[in-house]
Amino acid sequence: MVFLELMIMVVIIFVIIKSLPPFLSWFFIDATISGDTKEACTGTGACWTYIKIWLNRFIYGMYPNELQWRINLSFIALIALAFVGLIPSEKIRKFLTLYYVVIYPIIAFVLIYYLISGGAFGLEWVETGAWGGLSLTFIVSFFCLIFCFPVGMFLALGRRSDLPTVRYISVGFIEFWRGVPLITVLFMSSVMFPMFLPEDFFMDKLVRVIIAISLFEAAYVAEVIRGGLQAIPQGQYEAAQSVGLSYFQMNRKIILPQAIRITIPSIVNTSIGLFKDTTLVIIIGLLD
User: Fold this and answer.
1) CA 46, CA 141: separation in Å to the nearest integer?
2) pTM exceeds 0.70
3) Rounded to the nearest 5°, which phi and psi values hold at 181?
4) Burial of 189 (0-12, 13-18, 19+ CB in 10 A)
5) What is the per-residue pLDDT for 1?
6) Tens of pLDDT along 6-22?
7) 188 and 200 in contact (C-beta within 8 Å)?
8) Packing angle of the helix pair 133-159, 205-231 (nearest 10 deg)
9) I need a labelling partner for 118 at 20 to 30 A (CA). Which of 24, 107, 213, 237 fits?
10) SS3 of 39-58
11) How far is CA 241 from CA 145, 230, 234, 244, in A?
């Protein structure tokens, strides 16, 4: 067995050594970086000129060049506000849950709706059809992660509830959304859903997409958190009840912190899957 492992390791090292020089030659030595047109790429290496020319579109899509500072400012502000939890103050830490669950999403919505979209405060309006590239991917992923996590948490608690109505509604919601492909969900939100709205009611396509993906991913987050809840020993529930904690106090202070800590790897996995699933928005005309 040891000999077999040694042979496999030797073969892998040989393949790496054999393929590394051609790869480096294509990636660096023979690559083309200079120039402003595709005609500059005349060598046999990578054409980095293409990336250089189209980098702006890869990041911002068709968003007007002179207004791209609004996207940059919004993301810088959101990243800075995300580190509020690192402030070493006990008074602030008491309200971190409220901040990240309620206040921070509201701030993010205001920044993106009024600053990136514009149309108010003297800012030029930019339709969401012009949004695209990496910035759109981050916007969709960011809001979907914010919205799907609390919804999924309540669904997980509802599925384990002793109330039959709450349990059946939660089970029905989870199983329905987990049984439908995301492509179908996006198609319905973009094409079919507007047909059921009043004629004078308008909901932007990007908003519909964020709601659809959030509900879809919430079903998967609910199952992940439910797995963490099932891993908590029954003695934790009994101990919380024995000291007089209510149902909500028990879950907020005892059960959910332990369950979320257990499921962090699975939650990260689901978040990565959500980030990759945003590429499907291309089927409804959003170029991320």
Assistant:
1) 30
2) yes
3) -65, 150
4) buried
5) 64
6) 888 888 888 888 888 88
7) no
8) 40
9) 213
10) HHCCCCCCEHHHHHHHHHHH
11) 32, 17, 11, 5
